[in-house]
Input
Amino acid sequence: MNSIKKEIILSGMRPTGKLHLGNYFGALRNWVSLQDEYECFFEVADWHALMSDYAEPGKVRENSFDMVCVWLACGIDPKKSVIFRQSDVPEHLELYFILSTLTPIAWLERCPTYKEALANIEGNKIRNFSFLGYPALQAADIALYRADKVPVGVDQLPHLEFTREVVRRFNSYYDTEVMVEPDALLTDVLKLPGTDSRKMSKSYNNTIHITEDKETLEKKVLSMVTDPARIRVSDKGHPEVCSVFAYHNIFSSEATARISDECKAAQRGCVDCKRELIENMESSLGEFRDKYLYYTENPDKVNNILDDGNRRASERAKKNMRLFRDKMKYYG
Ligand code: TRP
Ligand code: SF4
Output
């Protein structure tokens, strides 16, 4: 039979809080569409979350479960993809250690994401030994599955470059090609502003959750910042600077041109415009919320899916670790 082996994808998210629309349109939506073409491993990166959220490990655990419910609700399919929790596959830590022996400290210190994280308001929280090694654990995540491709946003490119460098080092030290140098898979990202028109981010408190309940969704949309030049309904609007319009672009498909024209001609009020958006968001997101509620109400189903994913991920991780150890001629 002429079966061509599928390329392997690994990607992960940190369970640091409820997933929002930025996570959906920036990553999750793409993951869903990659599942047929690739052999996908989707990882709950809970050790990465613990690097910053070590004060509340129980919360990380809760967020992990919740995140899997959202993944499932949005269409990550356990029949097609492996959904697993990093901390259930201890080989991640073993490979992380091996890669850390090959990592010059300077590579970590100069990493732009590290510098940014330190400059952040919560920068003090991550002045620990473990967080410095964040990219090395991410490299281990990817290398452990010998992934060919990693779907990431541009913000994660430094981590991918780091991974490639450390993989090359491993292969050159141990005179092998066993580790796979992964490529970034830059999928299209739909950018959605937060409710205050800045970038959507948990730290700005301007997010809309993927599975937001209807009342909260209404409240959040009604509070959204619109075109600041529109004070009265008779003022002509500029949809291109209005966050509500950015949402219409995604959620209101064929109506967008009409909405834009009416706004520019001062023929629609912002409150009506928001109400129309709420309806359209509700009709696309309502289904995710229903499925999400189903999973949160049936935790056994979710735990079974995770157990099965953990088992499949462990199998692959053990097999690949054996290959790596062999080449190192150190472990038996
Ligand atoms: N660092 C990634 C993020 O913050 C999460 C992550 C952990 C990841 N391990 C990974 C992403 C491996 C891709 C591949 O979004
Ligand atoms: Fe924005 Fe709609 Fe108001 Fe125009 S009418 S400024 S698109 S909210």
